[in-house]
Amino acid sequence: QVQLVESGGDLAQPGGSLRLSCAASGFTFSLYGMSWARQAPGKGLEWVSGIYSGGSDTYYADSVKGRFTISRDNANTTIYLQMNSLKPEDTAIYYCNTERYWGQGTQVTVSS
C-alpha cells in the first residue's frame, strides 16, 4: 500500500533553516508528481510546493517562494523541502502528498 512518511520537523528560530523529508513507498515513485502542503493552527490546508515526476519542474506558493526549495531523489523514493529564512508564520504541520495519498505530517514550529 502507499505510504508517505514525513520527518525533519522541529523547533527553529526565526531566520533559521530546516529540511523536511518524505519517504515514499508502495507505488512507482518516479512516475508521480509530489507536493508539500501545510496546516497552521486554526487554519485550513495550504499548498506549499510541488515537483513533477522528473524533478525538473518545481512550483511554489508565493508565501514561500525564494525561501523554500523542493527536490526529489527518485532512486531513494524521497522528496525534500529545504526551508530557509523561516518565519513564525511558517509554523504548521507539513504534509507530503501524491494523488489522494497523504502522510501523517511533521510539526514545524518557528519561534524565538
Shape: globular
Low-confidence sequence ranges = none
Strand tally is 11
Strand content of the residues, in percent? Answer: over 45%
Taking Cα atoms only, what radius of gyration do you get, to the nearest Å? 13 Å
Structural class, judged by helices and strands?
A: mainly beta
**Order of H and E elements:** EEEEEEEEEEE
By DSSP (H or I, 4+ residues per run), the number of helices equals: 0
Helix content: under 10%
**End-to-end C-alpha gap:** 40 Å
> What's the main sheet like?
7 strands, mixed
In round numbers, the mean pLDDT is: 97
Q: What would you note in describing this structure?
A:
The protein has 112 residues and is an all-beta fold. 0% of the residues lie in helices and 51% in strands. A hairpin with a 6-residue loop joins strand 5 and strand 6. The N and C termini lie far apart (40 Å). 29% of the residues are buried.
Question: What layout of secondary structure does this protein have?
Answer:
Elements: E1 3-7, E2 11-12, E3 18-25, E4 34-39, E5 45-51, E6 58-60, E7 68-73, E8 78-83, E9 92-98, E10 101-102, E11 106-110
Parallel strand pairs: 2-11
Antiparallel strand pairs: 1-3, 3-8, 4-5, 4-9, 5-6, 7-8, 9-10, 9-11
